[in-house]
Specification:
Order of helices and strands: HHEEEEEH
CATH architecture of the largest domain: Irregular
Structural class: alpha+beta
Helix content: 40-55%
CATH topology of the largest domain: HU Protein, Chain A
Oligomer: single chain
Number of strands: 5
Largest sheet: 3 strands, antiparallel
Number of domains: 2
Length: 92
């Protein structure tokens, strides 16, 4: 499912809201998660899972096209850990 499909599904399930209002709600939701992760926080949605970030150390990588060594800087990457209910639904 992509973002536009999510917005359309929510608009169909909530006819009292216009698609533009649903889009604002979805944007607010995603922005809140992004802002929390950017500030080093964690976002937990019970039954769904938890979003957090993990640190990656600097390393020497390879350019796949040429095979030359490339220095890759240290960075933080998003991480998602599914909740117990999500894991159960996926494995039934």
């Amino acid at each position: 499912m992509i973002r536009s499909e999510l917005i359309q599904t929510l608009a169909d399930d909530n006819p009292e809201l216009s698609p533009r209002e649903v889009e604002k709600i979805v944007d607010c939701f995603f922005d809140s998660i992004s802002d929390q992760l950017a500030s080093g926080g964690r976002v937990e949605l019970r039954g769904f899972g938890a979003f957090s970030t993990r640190a990656r150390d600097a390393r020497t990588g390879r350019n796949p096209r040429t095979g030359t060594s490339v220095e890759v800087d240290a960075k933080r990457v998003p991480y998602f850990k599914p909740g117990k209910e999500m894991r159960h639904r996926l494995n039934v």
